[in-house]
Amino acid sequence: MMRVVLIALAAAMLAACAGLGRPVSLEERAQARWDAVISGDWERAYAYLSPGARTAMSESAFRELMTNRTINWTGAEVVEIGMCDTAVGSCDVIVNVGYRVSRGVPGLRKPIELTKGVTESWIEVDGAWYFVPDRLR
Fold it and tell me: How far apart are CA 33 and CA 36, in angstroms?
């Protein structure tokens, strides 16, 4: 009887731990990137950039770019995974992004809050998904 209990306990522990090493899905990574952007965690947001984007822009330049914008992101929700090219490991991710414009618009007396659907490009590198920005400026 004790042996059955120990086997059942071991099986329960293995089942509980099974999800710990699982690969993170594209949807989860895309949402986590936006969560980092919205919270202003630029170090974490930078880590989601593709290796090529990180080569083209330093983390400090990325931080400066993100903090000097005329908008503030207020929320984001991954809506769906769009077109994917499995041959090259790339997918589009559709995200609804909420943002506030509070400066930089002539005649703007109070902030404007908007939501916009955006399509992002992501690539898979060594089993992990990375965001590919349209442009770095």
Answer: 5
